[in-house]
Amino acid sequence: MLALYLRTPTLCTQEPSLYVSKSPCIAYDRLVLSEVRINATSIRDWPRHPHRGLLVDTSRHFVTVGGLLRILDAMSYSKLNVLHWHIVDDQSFPYYSERFPNLSDMGAYHWSAVYRPGDVQRVVHAARDRGIRVLPEFDVPGHTRSWGVAYPSLLTKCYVGNSMNGLGPMDPTNRQVYDMLKDLFAELRQVFPEKYFHVGGDEVDLSCWASNPQIEDYMLKNNISSTNQLHALFMNTTIPLLSAGTIPVVWQEVFDERVPLPNGTLVQVWISNSRDYLRNVLSSGHRVVYSTCWYLDHLKSGGDWGDFYACDPREVLRDSSLENDIIGGEACMWGEVVDDTNLATRVWPRAAAVAERLWSAAGGAAAAARHRLEEHACRLRRRGIPAQPPNGPGFCLV
Amino acid sequence: MLALYLRTPTLCTQEPSLYVSKSPCIAYDRLVLSEVRINATSIRDWPRHPHRGLLVDTSRHFVTVGGLLRILDAMSYSKLNVLHWHIVDDQSFPYYSERFPNLSDMGAYHWSAVYRPGDVQRVVHAARDRGIRVLPEFDVPGHTRSWGVAYPSLLTKCYVGNSMNGLGPMDPTNRQVYDMLKDLFAELRQVFPEKYFHVGGDEVDLSCWASNPQIEDYMLKNNISSTNQLHALFMNTTIPLLSAGTIPVVWQEVFDERVPLPNGTLVQVWISNSRDYLRNVLSSGHRVVYSTCWYLDHLKSGGDWGDFYACDPREVLRDSSLENDIIGGEACMWGEVVDDTNLATRVWPRAAAVAERLWSAAGGAAAAARHRLEEHACRLRRRGIPAQPPNGPGFCLV
């Protein structure tokens, strides 16, 4: 058995896991908050998947550092261990870069809606103290409109006929784009201690590239026959810019467009749910982080955690030789209609259903999970997390 | 013009409306919080519908008095003037009755989840001070399981074949039911100053009545040929038990089952949305409170206020001789998955879209309403109401 130490109301092991360098702390207040007092105990428990994540989007709406710390608390209470910080996107650029301060000076919603270096450190350190890794995402080349507020030349001019019609994805033919990304990545390597780095690569508006006469010329000259190939070229140029020792994480489109990906790359699957697709990614030597069925922004009257719980990517695969390369999954809280007011209530306890699916053995009756989730929602509330009622009528004594 | 007085940040008129006995106070911080300072002004504005309500269900989940007061604040900021307090239901009986204390002693979730007389008075007085009426609902004969915890004999024994299978709606053949309701109504008349009283009448499990041998006997002896008639008999016996001067409010089923209703009865329409149905209710001499399209418990990914805003019962009717008898509507926040944690965020600003539909002239472009709602959500947040983002990405400076 592992050596244990007890810190009310969490129980931590001394031994770090292979995947997480920090010792995992597990909420165990049933032991310490119950009437029974325990002198010593031994617990055998381990996670089925090493990557148990929650994506939080801080671009569509800004989330305060306090809001993020509350999310981290609840993640640790729910045995989630990766905060996927989708920090910037089209709508705003709230990350303050020391190297490129104009990005947030001009691209954030407001000067008060910016993560300064101290803010990022608070989040990173709070996560570390809870056994949670912070996986930063700077999504390129799409979802980058906010970068263009300060640096419009980074983005592609889209055309309708002969007239310009706004800015699209980053311009894959512009050398400055790659120079900037290289410098930014170097900075981010210092700021985020995580060896994984998410470069996005999803939902690129290829039609904008196709509409631009200069890009058309470039494609002709370089014998590039499709804009998909251009996307592949972009990712293929960008990924090597990551600092040494960094392992890339990409959305599935990057794999779909046949970009040669370095060994160990994590492919985040968010569209596909078929056995064939997963086999295809895994047999190409990549590992999968699964999110297709765990989008927390999809709402259903009366609740939907049962759908989240029923979804099991390793069961979809049903192929023992590959299934361990599905290293886990992430519940995704896209921020279009979520900010500090409703973030915590919308995430909790729904993400805890995903957390149990990722931690526990396959199967597990939903009826029993229902009771656990009811209890867990109330436990979260007692600890200050405003978890919404998961199961219909009831009462939680806070 | 009406005489005005100004109390930051609300503007109140001295003249009570015909329908609301309190002077309406209207949020007008655009005048008083803006850079422009105003010495005197004159405003012409009036509501299209006199009954602009929000139903809050405190039985499926208990809502604290603090939670209700916050709802009242936001209602006044949004020009809603009726809190329909669906106070008890199957799941719990949180109302403390001086005459029948066992109802909540045994039927509430917990002793701490009970509205004592002082609690009810706080809500009623806070509402009055904000120009809001409190319309209490004690739903009978269905939705009464919690009454049966203390008084099981009030409820009908349901049968499957020859064996009893739990308790159903109130027993319409039991004289004690009516004796108790009479006493309870007398108490409630003192507690709630409102002249309207909602007796429910929805979703009665008629099959339980049909399964009970004693009720079968009763129907035979009294020449009652259907359980619908039995429901009519129940409502027809119950409504006259209301204290003198009380005007009943009923869910539409009571009208549908042809219960003779006293003049002035409000029929709350929640299932039907057809022109013919509304004409039918109105031409029978009743008035309509409309809710069919304004159920806040129905969720839609990305938001749904546009659907609420597009719905206009008087436009459905398109019949000027009757349309004024649609006196208004109510947004309904059923409490199955809502408690203090997520009540305010789920209601606001969605209910404000209903409020504008009920206050303002017919029509109104959704695109313009979109801006007003964004601004209003931010205004609510500045005043301490955690209104969720209504329109997708954005930023509210609190």
From TrEMBL, chains A, B:
GO terms for cellular component: lysosome; membrane. The keyword Glycoprotein applies. InterPro entries: Beta_hexosaminidase_sua/sub, GH, Glyco_hydro_20_cat. It catalyses: Hydrolysis of terminal non-reducing N-acetyl-D-hexosamine residues in N-acetyl-beta-D-hexosaminides. GO terms for molecular function: beta-N-acetylhexosaminidase activity. It comes from the Eukaryota. The active site is at residue 203. Residues 49-361 form the Glycoside hydrolase family 20 catalytic domain. Belongs to the glycosyl hydrolase 20 family. This is Chitooligosaccharidolytic beta-N-acetylglucosaminidase. It comes from Eumeta variegata (Bagworm moth). The lineage of its organism: Eukaryota, Metazoa, Ecdysozoa, Arthropoda, Hexapoda.
